[in-house]
Amino acid sequence: MTASVPLQWVFYQTSRYNTGMSKISDTVLNIVGSIPKGKVASYGQVALMAGFPRGARRVGWILHQLGDNSPWWRIINNSGRISTSCLEHTALLQKELLINEGVRVTNKLKIDIEKYRYRPNSN
DNA sequence: AACGTGACGATGG
DNA sequence: TCCATCGCCACGT
User: Fold this and answer.
1) What's the pLDDT at A23?
2) Any atom of strand C under 7 A from CB of A57?
3) Which nucleotide's C1' sits nearest to the alpha carbon of A86?
4) Nucleic acid strand C: bases within 7 A of protein CB
5) Nucleotide nearest the Cα atom of A43 (by C1')
């Protein structure tokens, strides 16, 4: 674990997804698919859970290319803001999808990420 | 091989 | 909070 990874994220790291037998993109999509309705995660958080602590941009790339059949709208940046620039899946669409499942989103696309953040290891 | 470009993240002002 | 800057990583040209 390098110093660039915030300590509070260590908690989220799990090996349950990473068998080493599947492609990175499959692992990422499985993780995204495991996020419950009404919860969100950051790109970097998903990357960490997938075993790639500095792979936030990679997660964004994978969702952009392959995320159509996943709840891609539950992924936001770690500042708590919707940050898609995809023309097919716009920020406005993401906002509506999140609001639909009970997540409060401001007109500036801001979300209280710590309130809604998915925490797989906490019950 | 060298850049430019992102659905990113942390930090400092 | 906003913004610039830097680090990071995979792709495309």
Assistant:
1) 85
2) yes
3) B7
4) 1-2, 7-11
5) B8
Q: What does pTM read for this prediction?
A: 0.89
Q: How far is the CA of A60 from the C1' of B8 (A)?
A: 8
Nearest to A76 by CA among A119, A34, A115, A44: A44
First to last CA, chain A: 24
A89 in contact with nucleic chain B (CB within 7 A): yes
Rounded CA separation A83/A1 (Å): 26
**Rounded Cα distance, A83 and A64, in Å:** 12
A32 touches strand B (CB under 7 A): no
Spatial contact of A62 and A25, defined as CB atoms under 8 Å apart: yes
Contact indicator for A102, A59 with CB cutoff of 8 Å = no
pLDDT along chain A (123 residues), means of 10: 49 52 88 97 96 95 96 98 92 97 97 95 68
